[in-house]
Amino acid sequence: LKVAVLGLGYIGLPTAAVIARTGAQVLGVDVHQSVVDTVNSGKVHIEEIDLDGLVSGVVARGKLRASLQIEPSDVFVIAVPTPFDDDHAPDIGYVLKAATNIAIVLKPGDVVILESTSPVGTTEKVAELLAQLRTDLKIPGHCTGSADVAIAYCPERVLPGRILVELIDNDRVIGGVTPRCARKALQFYRRFVRGACVTTTAKAAEMTKLAENAFRDVNIAFANELSLVADRMGVDVWEVIRLANRHPRVNILSPGPGVGGHCIAVDPWFLVSAAPEQTPLIRTAREVNDGKIEHVIARASAMIEADPSIRVACLGLAFKANIDDFRESPALKVALVLAQRFGDRVAIVEPYASALPAAFADTAARLIDVDTAIETCGSFVVLVDHDVFRSIPLDERADKQVYDTRGIWPDQPVTNRGEALRLAS
Ligand code: SAJ
Predict the structure, then answer these.
(1) Where is the UDP-glucose/GDP-mannose dehydrogenase C-terminal domain positioned along the sequence (predicted)?
(2) What was the ipTM of the complex prediction?
(3) Per-residue pLDDT band at 419 (split at 50, 70, 90)
């Protein structure tokens, strides 16, 4: 079996490697020469547990190869980005470009699968495009009788940090442009998925993916809203959540400095922009989560202004714990504003970065390690719940002013909690 995976990012590369491990001949296609070169040398350009070993193994055995050029294959998996523009309207340009490239080499019997998170209807647009570009082939949804190729949507659902485990163990939703397409795609996923593979229509599968991430966003927004209420009331939100979650049917998620990553902070907008009148809750959740960033900046600023003599360490830039991914990261946004506002009083601790991101170039902020922060900073703003921060013992921070947006240090003395400093009101 020959498989082409288009897009060698956080989803495409692990997917390509896992398929290659099953013995299939996999070609990874990417637009960046540096990515192609890195993969062909058996290395990885992204940090993900166990991915480096897997990629070096399948490349060494000749099962995975990368290229800028697509080649004829039996199965095509599209895993390219679907960003949104300034008006939150989704941009499926990369998906359509990938489909255009596939059209050049498509032949009867092939299976085309879209995995990128996409607005409802995108898979049908891919089919339509292929029908326009390849009038010599019978494309599903655009022909009578049995089609020459199969086209399906099967969203990835893996959690960064657990990608290789979840790629295999998670259930998969497989939506065909026709039921026959779904069955063909199902055969492919059965090669490497241990979880259940459930078939449906392409549109239902597309909406399922968006619903999953919107569900999480709405639930995190509830936790973030509670944190604002608790802040106003002078109550410890972490304690309230711990207590509420003792109820058998309550399971409140964790507040934080906002919601980041390229999924939860993005995908709900795909639903909102498709049905604005029907989505006040989903839109508001997005606004609550984005608004939390401003609240954290205000609270952290108040703490820093309260004592001009102390240096401040912002702990973490990643969008969540124990990963090196800074996309849409609220921690990065907060740290950047604090660095711009307070100059060289602010230092950044991020064990997952070897240098500060380019956005910090105009600031005086420095990247320091945990030990230096403990020695030289009198104040901590906890922005990411990395394990390495969580494990700092009380005696190394008891005397610091701490604003802990992730609730990682419940034992911090109340008198040394920055959030206890009320704003001017
Ligand atoms: N967060 C909180 N509080 C929480 C949980 C998360 O503030 O209680 C924040 C995180 O710190 C982070 C953001 O939310 O900034 C998103 O993190 P996440 O762990 O919830 O999700 P992602 O973006 O890493 O992965 C999600 C997953 N979707 C769901 O759990 C429904 C994953 O399964 C998807 O595959 C992925 O999006 C994706 O690619 O769509």
Answers:
(1) 313-411
(2) 0.98
(3) low
